[in-house]
Design a protein that fits this description.
- By secondary structure, this protein is an alpha/beta fold.
- About 35% of the residues lie in helices and about 15% in strands.
- Strand 7, helix 9 and strand 8 form a beta-alpha-beta unit.
- The two termini are about 25 Å apart.
């Protein structure tokens, strides 16, 4: 079911690489909503063609004026985009708000796997979701258990394929968009080299780490703190005090060395999507020596995430959705940035030093209320890269109605 959009003409900007936005536009049109899609580069044009497409070929300076004129001419009353921190999207959002146009942002699901997020005004650090623990406790009693999500199956292969097509188009066929500036390096040949390096590292670390999971789930079980590292160019870092991931690593390691019990370890896990671009091994070894941690500081790549979470004493994250997975497994969480789930009583309220000394426990009722609220308000069962089984039209997703998060169900 489509969200309660209350619009007549939707403007779509950039979606995830692939046909997701084209399929979503089909659903909007089927609901009687007119659609305009702006293509900013050749990759956009590959995946979204046909009526309603408007190419933008100007400079970044001309972009806000272009959006303003388009909204006025076509009487657009809703803006849809994937990722609300992309530079072009941020400028468009500013214009839309000035003109009273509703802003809807897609993102990977807060709940994983098999969900997609769609929120009014913004996602992650820009989310307008409430942070009231009493509201969520009430939701645990009032909201029904969500239906078990259907699984569309593995999405890594189609996502990789779409990314390759997108990068190839931008690298070799982007002459029609001469001024476009992407927020990341998308040169196809450099990307190919990076992912070849990633494959090599994956093989190397799978051999090197083959006995480590048994150690962490056995001898060191509940005697280590887990730190999931985020992708170095993740826009989530904008919602934190850190300029880059190494800054976060240095602070966490130093605080652990000064305040954690001597028998505890610290496990840093590299993000699998960052394996092609970053390697923190030298930094971790230097920090282990500097702080005298020895084998108490562990750096891993490909160990099974749920097993790591179940056996951890606590999880420290900037604002990754791994924090929600940690709470799901009953492992306390300390958030160092801004996260939608950083709710008083749900995550650790004290300092990082206090967390290492005593991480506390997870309030299951509060977590359950939060999970149900999110599932009913801004999560749709599905996938950005594959349709659910048996769905042949549109995105194949059953959309939940998404009211203003401030207007939660009342007694």
């Amino acid at each position: 079911m489509l969200p309660d959009l209350s619009c007549t003409h939707a403007l779509l900007l950039q979606g995830p690489a692939g046909p997701f936005f084209r399929r979503f536009a089909d659903e909007l049109r089927a609901a009687g909503i007119r659609v305009t899609k702006v293509n900013l580069h050749a990759g956009d044009a590959v995946f979204f063609r046909g009526p309603g497409v408007v190419p933008f070929r100007g400079t970044a300076r001309q972009w806000p004026g272009f959006v303003r004129e388009l909204i006025g001419e076509r009487r657009i009353d809703a803006l849809f985009l994937f990722g609300d921190c992309r530079p072009y999207h941020r400028r468009a959002i500013e214009v839309a708000r000035e003109l009273g146009v509703a802003v809807w942002a897609f993102e990977e699901g807060y709940l994983r796997p098999d969900y997609v997020t769609l929120e009014r005004e913004g996602v992650n650090g820009h989310s307008t979701m409430p942070r009231d623990p009493e509201l969520f406790r009430r939701m645990a009693r009032e909201l029904p258990e969500p239906d078990p999500p259907e699984s569309p199956g593995p999405s890594l292969a189609p996502a990789a394929g779409y990314s390759i097509v997108n990068a190839t188009a931008m690298t070799f066929f982007n002459r029609g968009y001469p001024h476009y500036e992407h927020h990341r390096d998308m040169h196809a040949l450099r990307q190919a080299g990076s992912w070849l390096r990633s494959a090599t590292r994956k093989v190397w670390y799978s051999v090197r780490e083959r006995d480590l999971l048994d150690d962490l789930s056995g001898r060191r079980s509940v005697r280590y703190f887990f730190v999931p590292l985020q992708v170095h160019c993740d826009f989530q870092l904008l919602h934190s005090p850190y300029a880059d991931v190494p800054d976060f690593i240095r602070e966490v390691v130093a605080t652990f060395a000064d305040h954690a019990p001597e028998g505890d370890s610290l496990v840093l896990k590299h993000h699998p999507m960052d394996r092609a671009y970053r390697e923190y091994g030298p930094l971790v070894r230097d920090l282990a020596e500097r702080h005298g941690l020895g084998d108490r500081l562990v750096y891993v790549h490909d160990l099974h995430l749920p097993t790591l979470l179940k056996n951890a004493r606590g999880t420290v994250t900037i604002n990754s959705t791994v924090g929600l997975s940690s709470l799901h497994h009953g492992t306390p969480v300390k958030v160092m940035g801004t996260a939608v789930y950083d709710v008083p009583g749900l995550t650790h309220p004290g300092s990082l030093a206090d967390f290492f000394r005593d991480p506390g426990t997870v309030d299951r009722e509060l977590y359950e209320g939060f999970r149900r609220y999110v599932a009913h308000v801004n999560q749709a069962n599905g996938n950005l890269y594959r349709r659910l089984p048996g769905r042949r039209h549109g995105t194949g997703m059953r959309w939940f109605r998404a009211p203003d998060p401030a207007r939660a169900p009342t007694e």
